Amino acid sequence: MPRIPAVAPGDGGPLIKVAYKFAARQFDEVPEPFAVLANHKKLFLAAAGHEMAVQKASKVLPVSVRELAVYRVASTVGCSWCVDFGTMLARLDGLDVERLKAIEHYRDSPLYSEDERAAIAYADAMTGDPHGEHGVTDEQVADLERRFGRAGVVELTYQIGLENMRSRMYSALGITEQGFGTDSCRVPWSQG
């Protein structure tokens, strides 16, 4: 149960009701972070608009590269909700979700391409101390630019940074897995 309760549809006003219907149509359930964020209507709207804009704009990288890097951040930070939702997104994008189970061993696993390994390593560098001993290096960014181009590096960096924000925020608010990854999703306000 989250530390801040989810806003039930009847308690959120007309805009929240419409947004919940849209989310439920897209994901079959209302994502709990969405329902918790509804406690602050202006941030709720800002976040919803931002997420839709980022989703539409992120088309430079191969889907597997982006999804694996984002998933790695979620698993590193320990956000069970993000891991759960990320598993569903990978499945919906037609990716092999069994590969997610091996992400801890990406460096030497034959399940990952060199491009995917480079992106996951970058996620590791950004998610730890980006200026520390194992942080981002000039060589790493140059390698990513050769692989994905400048726009690809910016997209990858943005997605990793955004997932760091999401994962840390949801973990701090006590939001946990909701069942998206297993297709047995719970409704956030149904638990009293």
From TrEMBL:
What SUPFAM superfamilies does the record tag this protein with?
AhpD-like
Which InterPro entries does this UniProt record tie to the protein?
A: AhpD-like, CMD-like
Ranges for the Carboxymuconolactone decarboxylase-like domain? 50-124
PANTHER family listed in its UniProt record: 4-CARBOXYMUCONOLACTONE DECARBOXYLASE FAMILY PROTEIN (AFU_ORTHOLOGUE AFUA_6G11590), CYTOPLASMIC PROTEIN
| Protein name stated in the entry | Carboxymuconolactone decarboxylase family protein
Source species of the chain: Rhodococcus globerulus
What is the phylogenetic placement of the source species in the record? Bacteria, Bacillati, Actinomycetota, Actinomycetes, Mycobacteriales
